[in-house]
Amino acid sequence: MTHSPASTDPAEGGAGTLVVIGAGPKALAVAAKARVMADLGLPAPRVVVVDQHAVGGNWLPLGGWTDGRHRLGTSPEKDLGFPYRGAPHRRHAAQINAGMLEYSWMSFLVAHQTYTEWIDRGRPNPHHNVWARYLEWVAAKSGVEVRIGTVEQIRLADAGGWTVGYRTPDGVVEGVHGDGLLVTGPGSSDEPLLDDPRVLSVSKFWNAVSRREIPASSRAAVIGGGETAASALDELVRHEAMSISVISPAPTIYTRGESYFENSVFSDPTGWPSLPAPERRDVIRRTDRGVFSVSVQSNLLADNRINHVRGRVTRARRDGESVTLTLDNPGCTSTEQSFDLVVDATGGRPLWFLDLFDAETLDELELAIGARPDLRTLEETIGHDLTVTGLASPLYLPNLAGFAQGPGFPNLSCLGELSNRVLRSAVDRSAIRSDAQTVRSR
Question: Which end of the chain is more exposed for a tag (fewer CB within 10 A), N or C?
Answer without folding.
Answer: C
